[in-house]
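Handout, section 3.2

Students often ask what a structure token actually looks like in practice. Rather than define it abstractly, here is a full record for Interferon-related developmental regulator 1. The first block is the sequence as you would receive it.
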Amino acid sequence: GGQPRNVQPFSDEDASIETMSHCSGFSDPASFTEDGPEVDEEATQEDLEYKLKGFIDLTLDKSAKTRQAALESLKSAFSSKILYEFIMERRMTLTDSIERCIKKGKSDEQCAAAGLACLLCVQMGSGIESEEIFKTLGPVLKKIVCDGTASIQARQACATCLGICCFIVTDDITELYSTMECLENIFMKAYQRDRDTNGVSSTHNTVLHVSALLAWTLLLTICPMNEVKKKIDMHLHKLPSLLSCDDLNMRIAAGETLALLFELARETDADFFYEDMDLLTEKLRALATDGNKHRAKVDKRKQRSVFRDVLRAVEERDFPTEMVKFGPERMYIDCWVKKQTYETFKEILGSGMQYHLQSNDFLRNVFELGPPVMLDAATLKTMKISRFERHLYNSAAFKARTKARSKCRDKRADVGEFF
């Protein structure tokens, strides 16, 4: 029983099959092949469920490697499919498995289990069943987050999971405040580190502080306005100190949190005034135009892009609207609150984000998209451009790109000859 078993992971091929009976009416247009064979949905559904049952059983295996592989396969399936009915029947079994893996597993297994817990709540949405899951897992997650002897990676994963699950599940304001306080106690240590001139606290904990800060910020977006005011008063003067952190991710997390706090502050009070505005905008402008040679080009490019937007938000109350396409629909991200929420779920769902935006009732409620758009196969097929049209488009784009590059190359050649 202790020998590792050959676990066949949930593959991209499995993810490409439309399986859920109540979602079979819609799919990504790209999933329909021209003149392809019809898929027996009932058979593929049974095959998928058989695989998933096997993975659930393997989460109890004696081998840590087997348990982790099973958790990763379940994560892959949950992020790429809507499996509400299947999970509803096995939610307690899954919850027990996740709890056991977080309590007794090593770092990698704990991270995988925490990720699966996030996806389990995303699949279940807000409701009594999800509340039961969070009542079981919430205390375990908090214990790991606050446990200084646990690995940083496990604490980081549990902090993210705690924030997301609380965001999805809780209607209890007391539980919301308790969770935020737990996360606050973690990332506020980064303030202390900046005041510590001896540099005793190293960057080893920075990844944990970043995850705790982002999870806390997500929960702040669903707080009552009186609580938002308290949190703004508590943190708005301390967060700018994190902009000087050596870690890029911490600087970006602090900058985006500041932009969100200013947005919320101005919503609650149209005449909101920040005393140290000149000093803050000077810091943000320096980060938006950073040219330090000791930093990698990719990091500098990313930092400049983020802080240009942050500076615009703080100085001009402006937000660069982004458009997200999924299937036949479009969603506009037009504020920092929406951006923070979108980025959080995109991080845990990965490539499955578009599919969940199309078909996950909970996510559609969060982003106010209304009920799922039901499209039959015939409609989807008409929406898809033919292979010949796609070839013509790609050819035209290729020619235009080649011409543009040729002009640039010619200019370089002239400069070279001149010198």
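Discussion prompt for tutorial groups: Residues 259 and 310 are 6 Å apart (CA to CA). How would you have guessed this from the sequence alone?
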